[in-house]
Amino acid sequence: MSESSDQKVIDAAPTTHAKLAAWVQEIAELTKPDRVYWVDGTQEENDRLTAELVETGTLKRLTDPSFPNSFAAFSDPKDVARVEERTFICSEDEKDAGFTNNWENPVKMKSMLTGLFDGAMRGRTMYVIPFVMGPLDAEQPQYGVEITDSAYVVASMRIMALIGDKVLRQIEAEDAFFVPALHSVGAPLAPGQQDVAWPCNEDKWIVHFPEERSIWSYGSGYGGNALLGKKCYALRIASVMARDEGWLAEHMLILKLTNPEGKSYNIAGAFPSACGKTNLALLDPTIEGWKAETLGDDINWMRIGKDGELRGVNPEYGLFGVAPGTGWSNNPNAMNAITKGNSIFTNVALTDEGGVWWEGMTDEVPAHLTDWLGNDWTPESGRVAAHPNSRFCTPIDQVDMLSQEYYSPDGVEIHAILFGGRRKTTIPLVTQARSWAHGIFMGSTLSSETTAAAAGAVGVVRRDPMAMLPFIGYNAGDYLKHWDSIESKANPARLPKIFLVNWFRRDADGGFAWPGFGDNSRVLKWAIDRIEGKAEAVETPIGFVPTGDSIDLTGLDMTPADVEAAVVVDKDEWATELASIQEWYAKFGEALPASLRAELEGLKERLGA
Ligand code: PEP
Ligand code: NA
Ligand code: MN
């Protein structure tokens, strides 16, 4: 790039924010794009960018009227998911990354990345996206600016966050701090070189500098690797901010439930992938008179309110959900939101009518599709039509059951926290924690059996603390200490009650011990009744479980004895579990908080082990 075109970049910077102008100039000089474009966030701009993406073949415009103003993208087959093994937390001290993260010296990493980014945007447009995570009228809005060379990222970020001029003007007015989030697909174009539909690089780096609160992402165009407001900022970097500032950035849904008397409760829930988080976030209760409203499906920022209560905010503007398994019969609320339009689908199948389809969307399987790889597909093909990690990206305000409180700048009081995993045995349908510390013990030992969707053996128990294993931006032991410290910062009487749930337990015949889906509202009702002091429970060595008749079974073909079977605490299973928990805790070494060591000792004693 010539001296004069560098100058053009500076002059073109439509901002009075000195740090932002300087950073954009620095990155433009490093990455050497053909042009720099500041994203304003308007509909007109989005129409123009998506039309360009259709032109270049990145997006297909859906012509089926069931999917208005919607598009499908098909990634490089090697760029379909988050790359945890290429994800780094580059704290100054290696100790601060802990055993759950990859680490590299930040100076070394920066210098390596600077080499990779040098000229990385040649032949492309560099987009500057000012964005805010959470409400713009929050007491302390959390700003970011993503620089990317992908227009697909711009269009997706517009669904997932509030972006553009409105945000930029406020960043300037407050001379505010913003998280600098740099992204490149890592595929520069030589003069005259033909672009591909999904540019990316075999070499991928998703790197976080926690002290600096910055993100560098290289080589991938896929969601969690490239939409940097989501996992990189709102979980990994935000978890570090939260540690330093006394709040919690968590991988949780938020659901509001109102009982027949009109009293409302907000429930936060942390579940690893493929454990029904989106279904729970958009739940249709099967119990008479109960109403559910959605507040969030993936991320929950919790701060301590004026009265010492925990208040949760969903910092996102859209849903970025796994498509397969989301269908008209099991999640009509999600399907209604998706089919209002304005959605971007990635790696789903195309119907002959110009719409999209994925496994589980409809009970009836289409006779012919174009699969996510572009091949003809019929039910006899013997393979899936949509990639198992294909996604829908849809504005959250299209969810009919969205609570009005979603828009509240200081969020909602959280009354209960659920930790849940997928376990065939051992873990009861629901267990109430004995205390806050015991609840943290449950969260820290949260486990799930690996499914066929993930690489590796199936049915292996993997520990996933608070469902945050890939997202804790610092030392996992310090993270648990931080959870522990919330008790003394909050009003203990107002702290949420904690429950461990397992919708997936099997009965003696190998079938599911619990019907799940909308009937999970019955378990939530029990939890709320516990908070109210109205529901009965049995004290077991692992916590409080429901008595057989304390769960409302009205209209279900189940008996109290079935409930008792679903919550039984088996001595032998727990002997095995205890050994597995001890092994897990040993990995934390010195970083394990004393309170959790004490919880483990207490459990051992109660189990008579
Ligand atoms: C993602 O991979 O972009 C993502 C949202 O992650 P997950 O659904 O696994 O939480
Ligand atoms: Na938006
Ligand atoms: Mn998630």
TrEMBL record:
UniProt similarity note: Belongs to the phosphoenolpyruvate carboxykinase [GTP] family.
Superkingdom assignment: Bacteria
Catalysed conversion reaction: oxaloacetate + GTP = phosphoenolpyruvate + GDP + CO2
Cofactor stoichiometry and binding remark: Binds 1 Mn(2+) ion per subunit.
HAMAP family: PEPCK_GTP
Family annotation (PROSITE patterns): PEPCK_GTP
GO molecular function: phosphoenolpyruvate carboxykinase (GTP) activity
Keyword set, alphabetical order: Cytoplasm, Decarboxylase, Gluconeogenesis, GTP-binding, Lyase, Manganese, Metal-binding, Nucleotide-binding
Annotated Gene3D superfamilies: 3.90.228.20, Phosphoenolpyruvate Carboxykinase, domain 1, Phosphoenolpyruvate Carboxykinase, domain 2
Pathway: Carbohydrate biosynthesis; gluconeogenesis
Protein name in UniProt: Phosphoenolpyruvate carboxykinase [GTP]
Pfam family, one: PEPCK_N
Obligatory cofactor(s): Mn(2+)
Record's function text: Catalyzes the conversion of oxaloacetate (OAA) to phosphoenolpyruvate (PEP), the rate-limiting step in the metabolic pathway that produces glucose from lactate and other precursors derived from the citric acid cycle.
Binding site for Mn(2+): K231, H251, D298
Annotated positions binding GTP: A274, C275, G276, K277, T278, N279, R391, R422, F517, G518, D519, N520
Residues covered by the Phosphoenolpyruvate carboxykinase C-terminal P-loop domain: 247-606
Positions with a binding annotation for substrate: R82, Y222, G223, G224, S273, N389, S390, R391
Domain Phosphoenolpyruvate carboxykinase GTP-utilising N-terminal: 23-243
Localization terms from the record: Cytoplasm
Active site per database record: C275
